[in-house]
Amino acid sequence: MPIDVHEERVWRLGVAVRVFAGLLLGVMAVGVMVFVAYQALAPDGEVGLALALVVPYGLLAFLLWRQTFHPRLSAGPEGLVLRGPWRTVRVPWSAVVRCDAGYYGIAIICADGGRVLAPAPQKSNLSRWLGRRTRADDVADYLERRARQHRREVKASGVAG
């Protein structure tokens, strides 16, 4: 089946992971607000202690948000965009040789021998041990097929790319 090379596709971490992280962030926020309110309204409460706890919990919430909701893998006409928690990497289709799904994401082997990691989607170790196909395997196969399709089109048009 031919692949539309002009199609833009985006993958993120699984819905269950994002829902669990969202619930965890909500519980943390409510817990901190209740603690701060209690310390502020209690006669022997210490607002300084409560505010001192807001900073580490805020930092923890930011890190959880960055690790869970920020990563994504985008496949567009020009190539791949791998957005991790802290940096974004662009890989042209001409550089994509092989894609392997794993626990930390999809490892993309490049033509120059380099390796980049797309943090989403991920394959669980249990699926790997049991030999089960996952969404990450399907995405890796799709990326390889799309890279091959791109190379065929470039070869047919005679354009370097």
Quick description:
With 161 residues, this protein is an alpha+beta fold.
Helix-strand topology string? EHHEEEEEEHH
Q: Give a count of the beta strands, DSSP E runs of length 2 or more.
A: 7
Mean pLDDT: 89
Helix/strand-derived class? alpha+beta
Q: What percentage of amino acids are in beta strands?
A: 15-25%
Number of contiguous helices: 4
* End-to-end CA span: 23 Å
Silhouette: elongated
- Biggest sheet: strands, sense, closure? 4 strands, antiparallel
User: Which consecutive residue ranges, at least 5 long each, have pLDDT under 50?
Assistant: none
Helix content: 40-55%
Architecture blueprint of SSEs:
Layout lengths: L8 E4 L2 H27 L5 H23 L2 E4 L3 E5 L4 E5 L3 E7 L2 E6 L4 E4 L6 H6 L4 H23 L4
Antiparallel strand pairs: 1-2, 2-3, 3-4, 5-6, 6-7
Helix pairs in contact: 1-2
